[in-house]
Amino acid sequence: MSSYTIGEDVRAQIIGPYGPITAPQQTLISITPNQTVQAFQDLTGATNSRTVVKGVSGKITFTRTNSDLENLAAQMSQDWRAGVPIPVGSFTYTISELNGTETTVHLSPVSWMITKIGDATPGKPVMQELSFVGDGYQTV
């Protein structure tokens, strides 16, 4: 499986609902934890709060280099109309640390959404974007 370099120190592998998604010109990866703070009152009457973690969400923006995203949109649309559940995928990224080590993060399962099939601007490459929601965030 090939991985793609983003910036100077990140490599990523995108496994969409139907297989690998090739995005060799990734320009942005944004990952945000989905957290809420729940307040509660304990038996003594004191008010406390706890953070509730509900996975992560994010987006990957990249320059269009092939028809992978259009094909993915067509397959997802076809399955949706046929009543077939859209499968989940996964997302793995590796960060090169300043001390020479690497940290690899694996998100699985990941539900993918196409948020931009194409933003076209004269004189610039077509930009595409995938968004995701993942439940299992783990370093490997």
Topology:
Elements lengths: L3 E3 L3 E7 L2 E2 L5 E16 L5 E17 L4 H15 L6 E8 L5 E18 L7 E8 L2 E3 L1
Antiparallel strand pairs: 1-2, 2-3, 2-6, 4-5, 5-8, 6-7, 7-8, 7-9
Descriptive keywords:
Pnp Oxidase, Chain A; globular; 1 helix; mainly beta; nine-stranded antiparallel sheet; 140 residues; 9 strands; 59% strand; 11% helix
Low-pLDDT sequence parts = none
N-to-C CA distance: 17 Å
Number of DSSP E strands: 9
Please tell me the overall pLDDT: 86
Would you tell me which CATH topology applies? Pnp Oxidase, Chain A
| Global structural class | mainly beta
Number of helices: 1
Biggest pleated sheet? 9 strands, antiparallel
- Which band does the percent of strand residues land in? over 45%
Word description of this protein:
- The two termini are 17 Å apart.
- The model has no long low-confidence stretch (mean pLDDT 86).
- The protein contains one helix and nine strands, in the order βββββαββββ.
- The chain has a single domain, classed as Pnp Oxidase, Chain A (Roll), CATH 2.30.110.
- Strands 1, 2, 3, 4, 5, 6, 7, 8 and 9 form a nine-stranded antiparallel beta sheet that branches.
- With 140 residues, it is mainly β.
